Amino acid sequence: MTMATEQAVTIPPTGLSGDLIVPERATGIILFAHGSGSSRHSKRNRYVAGILQQGGFGTLMLDLLTEAEEQVDLRTRHLRFDIGLLADRLTQTVDWLQEEPSTRSLPIGCFGASTGGGAALVAAAERPSIVRAVVSRGGRPDLAGAALRRVRAPSLLIVGGADYEVIRLNQEALAALTCEKELSIVPGATHLFEEPGALEQVSHLARSWFERHLGPIRPCFGRSVY
Q1: Domain residue ranges of the chain, discontinuous segments joined by +
Q2: Neighbour-count burial of 99, counting CB atoms closer than 10 A to its CB (0-12 exposed, 13-18 middle, 19+ buried)
Q3: Sequence-distant (≥ 6) Cβ neighbours of residue 153 within 8 angstroms
Q4: Whole-prediction pTM value?
Q5: CATH 3.40.50.2300 fits 4-215, yes or no
Q6: Is the peptide bond before 154 cis (omega within 30 degrees of 0)?
Q7: Per-residue confidence at 217, pLDDT binned at 50, 70, 90?
Q8: How many CA atoms does the CB half-sphere of 84 hold within 13 Å?
């Protein structure tokens, strides 16, 4: 059985709370960006994280808002859609992972859900030599806007087959991306992938993508797979 270290962490300078798990002989670290109205305690994201950990990846589950900001957002619901703010927080965390002793030698990937998908892509654009792969689950990559064309990390967009509007938005974002990219549609799944087997499929798609791309650095050829 693979041993893992688990610790609660605080990310400067904002003091964001996170849960860091690093398996023994980890091959990479995956930074999770949760979606609108969710948190680092999301059962769906933790399920995905568990599958990644079984594959030898470390995971950092992070709250992108402070407790005070969460209280404001519960009333206004605007901070969860502030992609610039969320991406800045992710970028700060990427920099922290580069300094943290248990993760600084590990290649970094980002997994974003809902609005976190857009924030993950902006963070990848801001740190093109550090963020090596991105996976978006039921995400809003369109919210990354002009940053999409600056993303160099191979990017996998996963959408439920019954999530029709989000499929359209992901197709538009896919067209704007110039890196290696893929859109994977899970048949019959809705936005939260609550159908039997849907989240398991998402988890294995993500794990396969990170296994493929968190190895030796290789050039981006702009390949698109539909």
Answers
A1: 4-215
A2: exposed
A3: 109, 110, 124, 128, 131, 132, 133, 134, 179, 213
A4: 0.89
A5: no
A6: no
A7: very low
A8: 2
